[in-house]
Structure formats: structure tokens, C-alpha cells
Give the backbone structure.
Amino acid sequence: MPSKTITTTTAAAVLALGLLASQPATAADNTGDSTSGNTADSTGFTFGVIGDIPYGEAEIAKFPARIQDINNDSALKFVTHVGDIKNGSSVCSDEYFAAIRTQFDTFKHPLVYTPGDNEWVDCHRTNNGAYNPLERLDKLREVFFDEPGKTLGATMPVTTQADLGLPENVRFTRNRVALSVLNIQGSNNSLQPWTGLGETAATPGQVAEVEHRTDAVVAQIHDTFADAERRNDRAVVLMTQADMFDSSQLAGATANPDTVSGFRDIVQAIIDETNSFDAPVYLINGDSHVFAENRPLAEGSPWLDIYGQPAADDLQRITVDGSANATNYVRFTVAGNSADGAGVLAWERVPYSR
């Protein structure tokens, strides 16, 4: 599907986030339904996706203006941030989390956020503060998911896995399109050693967290598709931080498939469900910072050998721009209820005004 091409601009302003003025969000109209199809949107709707933003002081300074541009897109029914609210070489402090939460609260649309690896998995790094990543994950849940079942920004109800300790895993539906946002991480889904804490292999606590979270993610994928089948939904949209098909990692993954071992069960679940679901499936992710639109599990893809799985030709993947490329948000348009097949979802990159 076609997309708009934009020119990347260089950030110039350098300001502290805590000194930036912001206006509190006001309640926006939303008719989100976490359990059933929404007939109010029979003429179609749009939503926005961002990720890997803000990265560094210059982008932090611009973040309120980025949010304002998104707020000005009044047609959006909700916005998703697919993780990484900081770069990988800055401190994962409580103060920074609080400052980003303050900015998130200025969204006038419902905001669905899933954590990225930069704000917890990689926080063991010395230049990140040498934190225990599991403690940082607990802090993220305390700061950003203090009201499970409700979005940030304007309130929209969502179904969560808070009962499993994962309030960030949410799903909801609009106009017979099922949407599922999942905590899947870069750094091999958080299996890489915490070298900043002196570890050379994954710790027992680290492995236990990965296993629990992966089981929950797989369960939510299956639940999302089961409900979509029951409702005769027109499409399923999965969103996550991790790029499980990062082309820049192909050489390493081919040489050693263990570098993506943390994703194996998740990819298998996505393939199984995509191949049994009689409608389009979309995977939207961040992590690799460069916009892409492809079918990573189509017949002949090298990822099939790496993951040891059959093809899933109907899986369409979209990677949103991030880091220095985060000069736009991606606007997704869901067609009216009469459309189905490949015509359900279209997307375009929308440049920020500055």
C-alpha cells in the first residue's frame, strides 16, 4: 500500500523536559469498546502510531509540539506509542518517567502505551544508571499503568492482563477490527545478559520474567483471534515494540538463531493464528527506527528458516519511524464496515509541522 515520503529534519532546540510548559488534556469523545464491535464507527475511523520518541534532549524539547500536532488531528480515535520513550544511553530515572507521564497526560486522544526496552530492559547499562531491569519494569507499571483498563490521555476502556501482572497488555475492538497491544521487547525479548550489572548470562529472575510475560503474550494473541473469529471481525492488528524481523539483524540471526530465541513462541502463535484467520492480519512495531512495510513471513522469506516455521503470507508488517527519523506519525485509516479484505486498512506518514 502506498505511503507518503517525508524528509528527515535535524533537531535544533535543546531544552529540559521539566521546563517545558504543557496544557492538561481535556476529555475527548471516544466510543471505544473493549469487548464488542462498535457500530458507531460504521463509516470508518483513523488512529495514529508513534514509537521510539523522544530520543535525546533536542527531541525531548520538541515532544510537546509533536503531541500538539497529533492532538490537532481531530479525526484520530486513539493513538498508540509502541515503546522506547528515551534513547539507549540516558538514565532511566524516576524523574524522567514522571516527566514523560506529564507529557502523555496532554494527549487529547486516548493513548495506548507499551513499554520499550530502552526504558527497562537496557537500564542495567552503566550510562542508564545500572538499574535492575525488573525494578524499572515495576516502576513503569506504577507510573504509566496506575489505572488498569483505562488509557492514558483521554479515557478509553480496554481489556487488560492486569490479573496476570501485565496491565500494559491490552486489547480492544472498533468497527469489527480487533487491536491487541503486547509487551514484546528488543534485546531478544529481554534475554540478553545484564552486563552493566556484571552478568554474563541471563539470571534466573530474568528468565522467569521472560517466560511469564511470553506466556501472557501468547495467550493474549490467541484470545484476540478467538474473539475476532467469534465476532466475524474484518482484520486483526497487533502492535509491539520489538522488531522481530529486523533486516539489519539477518546475518547474525542466520548464523545463530538463538539471537532471536526469545521471540520464537510468539512468532509461532502469530503464524498459527494468521493462517487460520480468514481476514487480513497486521503487525505494527517500532524498535528498528526506519519505516518499512513488508510481509516478513511470506513464502521464501529467510525468517522462515531462522524461526523454523511455515509461511504466513497474509501477515502485513508496518514499522514506524523512530529516533532521528521520528519526524512523523503514521496515520492508519480503517475503511467503513462494508469494506473487507485488503481494503480494510491503509496508512500514510504524516510529517510533524516542525
The radius of gyration is 19 Å. The helical segments are 56-72, 94-104, 133-144, 186-190, 204-231, 250-255, 264-276, 302-307. The mean pLDDT is 90.
